[in-house]
DNA sequence: GAACTTAGTGAACGGTGTTTACCGAGTTGG
DNA sequence: CCAACTCGGTAAACACCGTTCACTAAGTTC
């Protein structure tokens, strides 16, 4: 069997090498530096050989995106499994802080995956499946937090009717995702107001992190971390649980 | 005098032409398409001639950023002056909606100015001056809104001590900015809690708009506009004024 | 009108993505 | 075992790119 797949084996290996080199170039010198010729040079082959593995540079970048999403997902999941028995608010806190830490440590990857007009992120919106998605861990743990709240959140009826369809659709997706993980949520608990609040939390989490990564706060914040933590505290507090 | 500046005149004109073409390329085909050779081709000159105007492509892109910031600023100001006597909440609402409208209509410009790791935005954070800054109009009008609120905002003491220095610094900048416009704000009205809330509003505004421009909402929102409006309503409502 | 400044040129260098024809080793079937 | 076939890799070529340099010609200044 080893002999039968020998060629496939070396193929898979060089494919990994290609992406590893591409990733290294991205990290070191940014997206524009991810060059087919540079990758090939580093691997000791020629650029056209890469076309045996990817249709184009664009295609390679898309696959790179997927890799990055997978890695981010793994890191977030790891941060979560480090405190399996912690209360839901603490878990949300941990996942969010890990997301910020990762983004600041990997600005080029963050920019490619989360702030690119041209790159179609396969693991992002569109599929509808919450699995294989960048915000998966955050959204799941946020849903769990809301679900763990016995009291109904305050602003449930504030959601305008125009949003009901979209939110209901996403509600089903989230409920299914939590169910897959062994949890059980009711529609009355994870109501549309709660769904909207989870989305708003994603807006704030993404907003802060992106502003920090790109340095677009209106003034130079000497230490953004307490500001981030304060935002999380307020965010989680507003989810209904008295953190 | 006309003859004395004749050369300068044509120089200024071609300089404008260069940026106009660069802008057109950016809009049409994205940042990577903004090519010295393509610009020159469109202008009927050769690429090296552009070096008489800009040190490098990077330099040109930075100047392009400034242009874009100026344009955005003008559009936001125009939206504001269209309702000069409107109550402060309505003004904030209008400026925010205009920002979203502009970003969605100019995704490439938005990406260049607001979500770029390499481009040092001269009109963004750093200078400390609120003038010549991207968020200027939003931040000023938000400050005005908070200032117009007679009642002290609820969460003034929640801000942790670590943030005081940064917020106090920005408080002075904002007060000075409002004062320049003829307004008058007191430190007790535009207190640190209010400053923090303005920053949080910027986080949410930026977060939503960027997520929409880059298509990074966790699921496909069929019509994001009511969601945006809802966010604004909540945001403005939390500023203390009963919108 | 001489001296000087300056916008623009053309050629060149090294880099890029991509296509094409080709080769040679790995695999497969008779 | 050998012919047929698959497939990863190559070299050459094309059309781009940013950037530098020597040079020209027109505008400006004295």
Automatic annotation (TrEMBL), chains A, B:
Q: Which UniProt keywords apply?
A: DNA-binding, Transcription, Transcription regulation
Among InterPro entries, the record links this protein to: Homeodomain-like_sf, HTH-type_TetR-like_transc_reg, HTH_TetR, MT1864/Rv1816-like_C, Tet_transcr_reg_TetR-rel_C_sf
> Is this entry keyworded rRNA-binding?
no
The GO molecular function terms of this record are: DNA-binding transcription factor activity; transcription cis-regulatory region binding
Locate the DNA-binding region by residue range: 35-54
Origin, by domain of life? Bacteria
PROSITE patterns reported in the protein's UniProt record: HTH_TETR_2 (PS50977)
Extract the SUPFAM superfamilies matched here: Homeodomain-like (SSF46689), Tetracyclin repressor-like, C-terminal domain (SSF48498)
Q: Where is the HTH tetR-type domain?
A: 12-72
Q: Does the keyword Transcription regulation apply?
A: yes
Supply the name of the protein.
Answer: TetR family transcriptional regulator
């Amino acid at each position: 069997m080893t002999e039968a797949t020998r060629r496939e084996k070396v193929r898979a290996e060089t494919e990994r090498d290609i992406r590893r080199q591409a990733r290294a170039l991205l990290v070191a010198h940014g997206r524009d530096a991810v060059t087919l010729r540079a990758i090939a040079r580093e691997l000791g082959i020629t650029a056209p050989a890469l076309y045996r593995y990817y249709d184009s540079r664009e295609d390679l970048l898309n696959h790179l995106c997927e890799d990055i999403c997978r890695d981010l997902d793994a890191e977030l999941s790891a941060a979560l499994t480090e405190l399996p028995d912690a209360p839901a608010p603490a878990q949300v806190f941990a996942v969010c802080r890990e997301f910020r830490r990762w983004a600041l440590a990997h600005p080029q990857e963050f920019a490619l995956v989360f702030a690119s007009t041209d790159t179609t992120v396969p693991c992002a919106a569109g599929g509808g499946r919450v699995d294989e998605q960048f915000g998966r861990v955050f959204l799941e743990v946020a849903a769990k937090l809301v679900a763990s709240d016995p009291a109904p959140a305050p602003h449930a009826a504030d959601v305008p009717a125009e949003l009901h369809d979209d939110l209901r659709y996403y509600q089903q997706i989230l409920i299914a995702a939590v169910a897959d993980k062994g949890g059980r949520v009711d529609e009355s608990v994870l109501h549309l107001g709660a769904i909207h609040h989870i989305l708003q939390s994603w807006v704030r989490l993404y907003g802060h992190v992106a502003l920090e990564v790109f340095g677009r706060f209106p003034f130079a914040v000497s230490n953004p971390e307490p500001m981030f933590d304060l935002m999380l505290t307020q965010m989680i507090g507003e989810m209904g649980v008295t953190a």
